[in-house]
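Re: that chain you flagged

S.,

Sorry for the slow reply, it's been a week of failed gels. I finally had a moment to sit down with the sequence you sent. For the record, here it is as I used it:
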Amino acid sequence: GPHWGYRRKARMGVKYVAKKGRVLVGFRERRNQFLAEMESCKVMHPIVGEKLMDLSAMIGQLSIKDKIPQIEVAIGDEDCVLAFRVLEPATDEDKEIMRAFGHQHNISICLQSKGPDTIVPIEGEPELMLTYSLPEQGITFRFKPATFTQVNYEINRQMVSRVMQEMDFNEQDRVLDLFCGLGNFTLPIATKAGYVVGIEGDQPLVNHAKDNAQFNKLTNVEFFVADLSKDVSDQVWARQKYNKVMLDPSRAGASEVLHNLKKWGPELVMYISCNPSTLARDAGILVNELGYTLVKAGVMDMFPQTGHVESIALFKK
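Prediction finished late last night. Pasting the structure tokens below so you have them in one place:
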């Protein structure tokens, strides 16, 4: 994948520094709360990463320049949205300055007064539904600016294709996809497997996943909300059998849910991890306590120029 300009999701800090007479836009320094002085960000997609100074100058013209703590960045295959968190309402003049900036740079500017569900375009501008696609599987996802998606589309496509190849899904398969998010794996799996269930702890994400299944005309997939760090054994989906299981947990890993595998009885378990230490712990549970064999493992450079990697491990029984 690309080494630079790959990052399509980010939350940038904003701070008006009166002494310097300018607005800092970018990211915090390591181990403190200060925003680093940056002219550009080379790991960000260039539509935003090369425009930090332009953004800074534009915000500097606003009456609320000291009332914007952050900007949510979301870049789809076609469009870019910047959602400005505003602690005070923007004036009409502010909105016109922002609107002109958006038109000039081909960026959709939104305002966010409170939580993520308050993100709205400036009056009179169209509301954009962002998209990213998995061309090999013929899937297109629609998502909102604050929705969780993978930050590196190129590596994500390769990762999904690798999972499809290794798991070799067919119409007899009943597949469980845990920590499924927007359905990043669930929907491509549903193009090959007989029946797929996706589980996610965040209700808005599950709603998005259901919408995306409909949008892609997939009828053999169901989504449920569940906190996978708690006991789920009494839930309808958890009382069924699955012959293949997919896991893509957060950094905390998946130790609490793994004991359910005894009941579900999958022959294959694919584990995607963004934290090698919790993957190592969970691999220990899968092998030593549940009788699986680790047959393949690898890493993907999902976050070039950083110390983070995405790991992938396939377990078999």
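What I noticed first: The chain has two domains: 9-128, 131-316.

Talk soon,
D.
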